[in-house]
Amino acid sequence: xxxxxxxVMTEGGIDDASDSSGxxxxxxxxxxxxxGAGVAVVTAQQMxxxxxxxxxxxxPDGAFTGASSALADTLFxxxxxxxxxxILTPFKDALPxxxxxxxxxxxxxxxxxxxxxxxxxxxNSMGNERHQIWPTQIGQGDPxxxxxxxxxxxxAFTTSAVMPISIAGTPTVSFDATGNVYPAGTQRQLxxxxxxxxxxxFPGPMINAExxxxxxxxxxxxxxxxxxxxxxxxxxxxxASFLTHLHNGHTAPESDGNPHYTMKNGPFSHxxxxxxxVDNLYLNWPAGGDDRxxxxxFWFHDHRMDHTGANVYKGMVGLYPIYDPKVYPGxxxxxxxxxxxxxxxxxxxxxxxxxxxxxxxxxxxxAFYDCRLDDGVTTHQDVHDSxxxxxxxxxxxxxxxxxxxxxxxxxPNHGFVGDIFTVNGxxxxxxxxKRRKYRFRFLDCSVARIYEFKxxxxxxxxxxxxxxxxxxxELQGQWRIPDGQQCMxxxxxxxxxxxxxxxxxxxxxxxxxAKRREVxxxxxxxxxxxxxxxxxxxxxxxxxxxxxxxxxxxxxxxxPDPNYKIPVLKFVVGDVAPDNSLIPTAMRPIPxxxxxxxTLMDNRxxxxxxxxxxxxxxxxxxxxxxxEPMTVSTSLKNPAGKTPLAQQKKGSxxxxxxxxxxxxxVHPFHLHMEEHRTVMRNGKDVTKPDAAHPEDNSRxxxxxxxxSESVVVYRGFRDFVGPYVAHCHNLAHEDHAMMFGWExxx
Length: 746
Ligand SMILES: [Cu+2]
Fold this sequence. Notes:
Helix content is 8%, strand content 29%. The strands form ten sheets. Strands 15, 16, 17, 18, 20, 25, 26 and 28 form an eight-stranded mixed sheet that branches. Strands 19, 21, 24, 27, 29 and 30 form a six-stranded mixed sheet that branches. It has a six-stranded mixed sheet with strand order 32-31-34-39-36-37, with no helix packed on it. 55% of the residues are buried. The structure holds copper (II) ion.
C-alpha cells in the first residue's frame, strides 16, 4: 500500500459516517484491508493480466503488470456471475414506447402540505434550501410541476418461457421461491424482479420537456414502504436513500443530485432518506442563454454516493427528451418541437394532450440495459458480505429462492455486464414500424456495457448462442444472427450535447454508458437503394463484444469478431404512412471557440483517472485521490507550473484535460453542468475532426476515453454557483471513488 493511499484511508471525513446499517463501506474497507476478512481470494491465473497482455493493452509504463493491481484483484473479489436462463422466444414482446408523463394540475400541487416555490426552505422537505434561480428571474413563467415517487415494485423483462442453462450452455436445474427444485430441461416462466422505480416502473417516466418552459419535479422517497411484500434482495443502497441527477441538465447544484452538493448542503448526507423529498428544478434554459447550447435528450438517474450502480441497476432510470419550440429567423415554425411540418422537419408527429403533456409519434427513445438473472447456484459474495449491509442475505450464500430475478454484485469493480440485453425494460423486443422515417433517441443506461450498433438483415433469423455450441462469456447476449448482413445506415442527428451541426451518415456507432445518440432510420429503402416491403425484418444488432467491465474484446475499431452479432431489437416493416419529415442538411451550429483557445493550454486543469493500489472501495482514483465528497479537487501540475483547485469563476471558460492513466481500461468520463467540445486528443488539435471522431465537431457531456488516451475539452461555467462533480460513468468505477468535486465560485 502506498503512502498516498494510506493518506486517503486515514483522512477521516464524511465518508466515515455510518449509514443505517451502522457501517460505512469505506470504513469497512479499512478493516477489511487489514484483516482480509470476508474476502474471496483468486489465483493469479484468473486475473486479467494475460488477457490484456495478449491484446497489447498494457500501459506504456507497464503499470498494469505491477504487483499493485494484481494484488488488488487477488485480495478483493472474484468474478463469478450466474448464467441467465435462456429466453426461448426472443422478439415475442412488443417494444414499450413510453408516453409522456402529465404535469400535476395547479389545483392539486397548491394543496400539497409543502408547496413548491421560490421561497426560503421550499426546495426540499427539510426546509433548509431554496432554488438558486426561479424561472421568473429569467423571463419564464412558473414551472410545470411533476410528481414522482420512488416505489418498491416488480418488473418483468419478458413474457417468454425460459430454459435454465449452465455456463456450458447446457440445460440445468432451476429453483423457485418456495424451495422447489426443477430438473434440468424444465421450461420455466421467470418470476418478476424487484425494482426501485420512479413511480414504480422501469424505465421510469418520460418527461417531454421544452426549452423556455421549466419543469419542477417533486421526488419523494417511499422506498421504506413495501405494500406488495417484495423481497428486496441484496443490492440497492442499503439505507434506501436516493439522489436524482438529470444527466446533463444545465442545473443549479441543489437540483443537480450530486454528492459533493448533498454532503455539504440540503440533506447533509449521501442522499434523500425515506420520507424525504426534493424539488429538482430544471430550467430548460441553455447555458448562458445561448441557443447554440440547447440539447435534445437528457435522462435522469440515481447518483447516490457509493451505490449509484446498484440503484440504477435496480431501476432508477427516467427519460427526458427536450424540444425547442423557438422560431428562428429564416426558418418556418418551431425549430425542433416534435412536428415534422415545421422547423427542421425532423421525424415526429406531435399530439398536444388535454392534460398538459404532448406525445410525439415516430420519435422513440431506446434505453439499453443489460442484466443477469440469478441461477440459484452462484454464490453471492463480495467484499461487503461481512459488513452487514444485507444481513438477511447471510452472504456469502447462494440464493435459489431468488432464481430468475436480477442479480447484482457490487464487486468486482471492473464493472458489471449482463448477459440479457433489454430495450426500454424488455428483453429482445419487436417494434412494428411504418414504411417511413423515424427518429430514435438511443441511451445507454447500463452499469458498464458499451454497445456498437448496426442495422442488419438475416435470412435464417436468430439462433441461440447455446445452440451454436458456445459457452462462457460467448453466451452474453443469448441470441445471434450468424448470417446477419448490414442492410441500412443510420443518419445521426444528435449526440449527448444535442443536435449536430450537420447529420452524419454511419454504418455503425458506439454507445458508451450514459451517452445518447439520436438517429434517423428510413424504413422505406435499403442502403443499396432497393425498397423495403411489408413484413421485412431488420435487426438492430450489437457487434461490440464486451466480456467484462474493462473494455471490449472485439468491435469494428479493434479486432472485430464477425461472428458476434447480437440482435437486440427487431423492426418489422408495416404499411406506408404519411411522412412529412426531411433529413436536414444543417442543424444546430456549434458555439464558436475563441481563436486564442490554445493560449489557455498552459493553465489548463488536468485530471488523470487511474487505478489505485489499494483496490476495494477506493480502487479507482483521480489524481491519486479517492473521491472525497467534502473537498474540491486539485489539478495535476499544468505547463504553467501550477496546481489549481478545481474551481471556476461563474461565467468563465476553460480547458480541462482528462487523461486515462492507462492499464487497458476505458472510462466514460462525465462532467456535470455544461456540455463541452473536444479540442485535443493525445496532444493533437482535433477542432477539424477526423473520420474516427466525427462528433468532435459537436457538443458532448461524456468523454469516451480509450486506453491511455488524453482528451482536452473546452467548456463554460455559466449561470450558477456551487458544488458539482465529475466522474467515470462506468458506475462500478464511480462507486469505487472515481469521482471528484469541483465548484463554480461567484
Ligand atoms: Cu472508469
